[in-house]
Amino acid sequence: MRMETTRLIRPNELAKMLGVSTVTLWKWRRDGILPEPMRIGPRFIGWERVVIHYWLKRRNKSKDKANKTVK
């Protein structure tokens, strides 16, 4: 039997991927912009790669719609 593992993206890695600071990640999380991370332990959190991929896809579609409306 093959067990699926969920790939987690740690805060530092996500900040680097998005080109922002970790402080910005926490602000986005607080403001409901960024999905909630998974809490694995008291000091270990991360975002599922699939969730971030979907979030980025939706975010890009929203930006595309906004750009088309402005033009």
Q: What distance separates the N and C termini? A: 53 Å
The order of strands across the largest sheet is 1-3-2
Q: Helical region count?
A: 3
Overall number of domains? 1
Mean pLDDT: 86
Beta strands, count? 3
Share in β-strands? 15-25%
Shape: globular
Q: Compute the CA-based radius of gyration.
A: 14 Å
Main sheet overview? 3 strands, antiparallel
The secondary-structure element order is: EHHEEH
Work out the helicity level. 40-55%
Structural class by sheet pairing and helices: alpha+beta
Low-pLDDT stretches are none
Would you mind describing this structure in some detail?
The model has no long low-confidence stretch (mean pLDDT 86). Strands 1-3-2 form a 3-stranded antiparallel β-sheet. With 71 residues, the protein is an alpha+beta fold. The chain is 55% helix and 15% strand. It contains 3 helices and 3 strands; from the N terminus they run E-H-H-E-E-H. Strand 2 (38-41) and strand 3 form a beta hairpin. The N and C termini lie far apart (53 Å). The radius of gyration is 14 Å and the shape is globular.
Topology:
Elements: E1 8-9, H1 11-18, H2 22-30, E2 38-41, E3 44-48, H3 49-70
Antiparallel strand pairs: 1-3, 2-3
Give descriptors for this structure.
alpha+beta, 71 residues, single chain
In short:
This protein is α+β, with helices and mostly antiparallel strands and 71 residues long. Helix content is 55%, strand content 15%. It has helices at residues 11-18, 22-30, 49-70, and strands at 8-9, 38-41, 44-48.
